[in-house]
Specification:
The protein is about 35% helix and about 15% strand. By secondary structure, it is an alpha/beta fold. The strands form 4 sheets. The protein has a 7-stranded mixed β-sheet. Strands 2-1-3-4-5-6 form a 6-stranded parallel β-sheet, sandwiched between helices. A two-stranded antiparallel sheet has the order 9-10. Bound molecules: iron/sulfur cluster.
């Protein structure tokens, strides 16, 4: 059982899958290739290898792992499981996995380990509420930490739900879950948090695609965790639409120790937000920042600045938004270099807004290529991506200034930045953040 990348956290997917396989009587070894190397002895020992692929980066790395495994044991059965398992199935020249299990993978993995070929399955039936088994994984101290109030805290990642009720067109979740949400049993989440706390965690990351997809369940879970561990902080991902739809949840989350909320703002162009079917406008995003801060919760927006529809003015407006909402210190600079991914099965395929921009499928990058109608925007993206990579470790504020200058000079605009915090002012001092910026 191996993980390649899970946003810098101890991989929940492997812990969950391990619980299912041990429960079915199988022997399991776990390795996280994000922090360890795959030992030849483990490859020699295994009768089967299951690779967790919950996101695009994980899937690309997993393809390399399969090469390593197959070089040593050409006949060893390999399975991909997780959100990205099926992406690359049709269009990658030869699929390196014998089995593919997307969605609710536990039962499919057990069946596969028992010798039943699940084919290329998307499974959405409810999983048993087993408590993830984490003993086979590296300790929490080897993963990303939360920086908060001048100290670093160990972090454990759990999920109260999987799937999503929404169908944003650029997102891989609806490709598998098609608007469905699967709750994780409350008792299993609580027991997982208990064992993470016992292992030293002082902050919990909720890895749910959206924490308020099942609002009553999530609020119950968070309240129960707070009763058991009153000093624990947590973060969760919540879409703008939900932040505004459930205002009464915000004080509850704050009181239960919410350190920050990640929210996929993506763009401040309403036409791009419509192309992506995000269900919010730029004005809504502004309102969400203000609503969260009214309860002392800081937002860490994620952005998708580079799409086929992005204009240079959109980029200037995005940077103006960040400044006017005092968010410079709340955004990891890598977010400014994110370019739209169009994987196999993407809901954007077939959209009239997307079709004219598409090129060939790139099997090494596991996605459809696309070009911006204005090559200058693609060049600007490449410049920003290079700059962000070269500035790893530099203070985000400084990197922001450099990118901001690049964008404004490309726009040929003399328009000055708005005053910092002109619309909303955030907390003074360091904002809570992880030691490792994440990307999908
Ligand atoms: S972007 Fe978020 S809200 Fe939209 S479909 Fe994906 S997980 Fe759901």
């Amino acid at each position: 059982m191996a993980s390649t990348y899970e946003l810098g956290h101890q991989p929940l997917s492997v812990a969950t899958a391990t619980a299912a396989l041990l429960g079915a009587g199988h022997e399991v070894r776990g390795v996280d290739i994000a922090v360890d190397t795959l030992a030849s002895a483990d490859v020699d020992w295994a009768e089967r290898v299951a690779l967790s692929v919950p996101m695009h980066t994980a899937m690309r790395l997993a393809l390399r792992v399969v090469e390593t495994v197959r070089a040593r044991r050409p006949g060893l059965a390999v399975c991909f499981f997780g959100l990205y398992a099926g992406m690359g199935r049709e269009l990658t020249v030869t699929s390196p996995a014998d089995a593919i299990i997307a969605g609710e993978y536990e039962a499919g993995l057990v069946a596969w380990a028992n010798g039943v070929d699940p084919g290329a399955a998307v499974q959405l039936h409810r999983s048993e509420g087993r408590v993830p088994v984490r003993e086979l994984l590296p300790e929490l101290g080897r993963y990303t930490r939360l920086v908060i109030a001048g100290e670093e805290r160990l972090v454990g990642s759990v999920a109260a739900s999987r799937g999503c009720a929404h169908r944003c067109r650029h997102c891989p979740v609806p490709v598998v879950y098609d608007g469905r949400v699967r709750r994780v049993e409350e008792a299993a989440v609580l027991a997982d948090v208990d064992q993470l706390v016992a292992a030293g965690a002082r902050h919990i990351n909720f890895a749910d695609p959206d924490f308020l997809n099942a609002p009553h369940h999530s609020r119950r879970v968070v309240a129960a965790i707070h009763r058991r561990h009153p000093d624990l902080t947590f973060d969760a991902t919540i879409k703008v639409e939900h932040i505004l739809r459930y205002p009464d949840a915000l004080p509850e989350l704050a009181a239960a120790g919410c350190a920050f909320v990640v929210s996929a703002f993506e763009s401040v162009s309403d036409s791009i937000l419509r192309c992506l079917d995000k269900g919010h406008t730029a004005a809504d995003a502004s309102e969400a920042v203000i609503a969260l801060r009214a309860h002392g919760i800081e937002v860490r927006p994620s952005w998708l600045p580079f799409t086929p529809w992005t204009t240079i003015d959109d980029l200037v407006e995005l940077f103006d938004f960040v400044v006017a909402h005092d968010l410079i210190a709340s955004v990891d600079p890598v977010q400014y270099s994110v370019r739209l991914l169009v994987p196999e099965g993407s809901l954007l395929l077939g959209e009239t807004t997307m079709t004219p921009h598409l090129g060939a499928y790139d099997p090494t990058r596991l996605g459809w290529t696309w070009a911006h109608p204005d090559p200058a925007i693609d060049r600007l993206h490449a410049q920003i991506a290079t700059l962000v990579e070269a500035r790893v470790g530099q203070a985000p504020v400084q990197t922001f200034d450099e990118i901001d200058a690049l964008i404004r000079s490309s726009a040929g605009t003399s328009s000055a930045r708005p005053a910092q915090g002109a619309v909303s002012v955030g907390p003074i001092g360091d904002r809570a953040h992880f030691t490792e910026p994440w990307f999908c």
